[in-house]
Design brief:
Elements (H helix, E strand, L loop, with lengths): L9 E5 L19 H17 L3 E5 L15 E4 L2 E4 L10 H10 L5 E3 L11 E3 L4 E5 L5 H13 L4 E5 L11 E5 L2 E4 L13 E4 L11 E3 L2 E5 L3 H9 L4 E4 L2 H4 L10 E2 L1
Parallel strand pairs: 1-2, 4-5, 7-8, 10-11, 13-14
Antiparallel strand pairs: 1-15, 3-4, 6-7, 9-10, 12-13
The structure holds citrulline.
The site of citrulline has 18 residues, from loops.
Length: 260
C-alpha cells in the first residue's frame, strides 16, 4: 500500500520560527500572527499524537520561513524516503536540514538530483498509486524524475495537472477514504481520479479541500462548516483544527507533517 493513512505510525514536523510570518504567499496578503500560527501548529501536533502517531518536532529554522511545512521537502513511505527539490528557490535549502531526521528512520533514502523540481504538496498517495500534480512548483522534468524514484520503491506514479491558480495539487484535493476524494470543482474531471468517488467542496469552501486523513480520522479546517457537515453526513470521523493563520501563507493541514 502506498503509505496507507490507516497504517501511519509516525509524523515528522518542524516548529515554526518567528520568521514564519514572512512565509511565501501568492496574493501578497497580510502576515499571519505568530502566536496564533504557533498555536495552530501546537494543536496540529497534539491532534496527531492523540490519533496515536509518534510525532517528532524538529527545531525551528529562522533562515527558512516556510520550513514548518515539512511535507514539501520529502516523501516518506514504509519502504524508504525521497528527498525532493522544492520549486521555490527560497525553500531549496530546507532539504539539507531534514536529511538526518529522515535517515534516522529510513534505511533507504533516495534523492532527486534535478534539473527538475517537485514539492511534496503536489503528491497525492492513493491505495494503488501515487499522483504527481504538475504545478508552479513541480515541473515535468521533476515529475519524471520523481516517478522513476517512486518506481525504485515499488510505487506506480501518474502525472496530473494542477488547476491554474492553485498552489499545490493537494491544495485542491485530499483523501476522505481509500475510495473517495474531496476536491475543488476544477478537479472534478481530473482523469487520474477515474474509478474513485469525487466529492466536491461545498460552494465557497474551496479552501477546505486540503484535508488530511490520519488513521481513521479526517483532519479538516474548523471554519469550513459546510464541509464538516458533509463529512458528518457521510459518517466520516472528522476532527476540526484551526488553520486561519497558516492560510495567510497559503498552507493547510497536510503541509505541516510528513507521515509514514
Ligand atoms: C509556500 O508557498 O511554499 C508556503 N508558504 C506554503 C506551503 C504549503 N504547503 C503545501 O501545500 N504542501
Amino acid at each position: 500500500m502506498t503509505g496507507n493513512p490507516s497504517h501511519f505510525t509516525h509524523a515528522l514536523c518542524r516548529a515554526p520560527a518567528p520568521s514564519a510570518i514572512h512565509g511565501i504567499r501568492a496574493d501578497g496578503g497580510p502576515d499571519p500572527d505568530f502566536a496564533g500560527l504557533a498555536a495552530e501548529h501546537d494543536a496540529y501536533v497534539a491532534a496527531l499524537c492523540d490519533l496515536g502517531l509518534t510525532v517528532e518536532v524538529l527545531a525551528p529554522l529562522d533562515d527558512f520561513p516556510d520550513a514548518l511545512f515539512t511535507e514539501d521537502v520529502a516523501l516518506t513511505f514504509p519502504e524508504g524516503a525521497i528527498l525532493l527539490r522544492p520549486g521555490a528557490q527560497a525553500r531549496a535549502g530546507e532539504v539539507a536540514h531534514i536529511r538526518d531526521a529522515l535517515a534516522a528512520h529510513h534505511a533507504r533514502l533516495l534523492e532527486m538530483t534535478g534539473p527538475g523540481y517537485a514539492d511534496g504538496g503536489d503528491i497525492l498517495r492513493l491505495a494503488d498509486r501515487v499522483i504527481i500534480g504538475l504545478s508552479a512548483r513541480t515541473d515535468r522534468a521533476g515529475a519524471d524524475e520523481l516517478a522513476k524514484l517512486l518506481g525504485q520503491l515499488g510505487y506506480r506514479a501518474e502525472i496530473a495537472e494542477t488547476p491554474p491558480g492553485v498552489l499545490h495539487f493537494k491544495t485542491g484535493c485530499g483523501l476522505i477514504d481509500a475510495h473517495t476524494i474531496l476536491a475543488v470543482p476544477e478537479l472534478a474531471t481530473c482523469p487520474q481520479f477515474a474509478g474513485l468517488e469525487v466529492v466536491l467542496t461545498p460552494l465557497g469552501e474551496d479552501g477546505a479541500a486540503n484535508i488530511l486523513r490520519v488513521r481513521d480520522t479526517v483532519l479538516v479546517g474548523d471554519r469550513w462548516l459546510a464541509t464538516r457537515a458533509m463529512l458528518a453526513a457521510r459518517g466520516i470521523e472528522a476532527r476540526a483544527l484551526p488553520t486561519d493563520q497558516i492560510a495567510h501563507i497559503d498552507a493547510g493541514l497536510s503541509c505541516m507533517s510528513l507521515r509514514w
